[in-house]
Write a structure and sequence with these properties.
This protein is α+β, with helices and mostly antiparallel strands. Helix content is 39%, strand content 20%. Helix 1 crosses helix 4.
Length: 135
């Protein structure tokens, strides 16, 4: 019986690299964003509300990051017919809004990214730039 498990985890350097890449991409687009990075259990590792980003978008960015970390898939993967029910059942903790991406490493979910304040396409583009920063 195994009592201790070795897990992969993001370091603070990884989180900072991702935030920096996200900020750079958002600035290139001219769209300030709220960006949240969580670990595999949904705990916040880093976040920023860029100057000019909508303050309520921080809440949706957190929900997106936690949803992606919990499901291991992009938030848009939640099936259309159950989106409203899942959101209601979780008090808004789970969302299908675009901009939530899982952070995968060697086949395991080690975290999630949530981006909000732009269009869905902009949010996803910033998230993808963040993932690319991890190599």
């Amino acid at each position: 019986m195994q009592l201790i498990e070795t897990v992969n985890a993001l370091t603070h350097n990884g989180v900072m690299a991702m935030l920096s890449a996200g900020i750079s991409r958002a600035e290139e687009m001219g769209q300030p964003q709220c960006i949240v990075v969580v670990d595999g259990s949904g705990e916040v590792l880093g976040e920023i509300r860029m100057t000019g980003a909508k303050f309520l978008s921080r809440k949706s960015a957190l929900a997106k990051a936690r949803t992606a970390a919990s499901t291991g898939a992009e938030t848009t993967a939640i099936p259309e017919p159950v989106r409203l029910q899942v959101a209601a059942a979780t008090g808004g903790a789970v969302t299908a809004l675009p901009g939530g991406l899982p952070i995968l490493y060697r086949g395991s979910v080690i975290g999630g990214i949530g981006v909000g304040s732009g269009s869905g396409e902009q949010d996803i583009a910033v998230g993808r730039a963040m993932l690319a920063a991890l190599g």
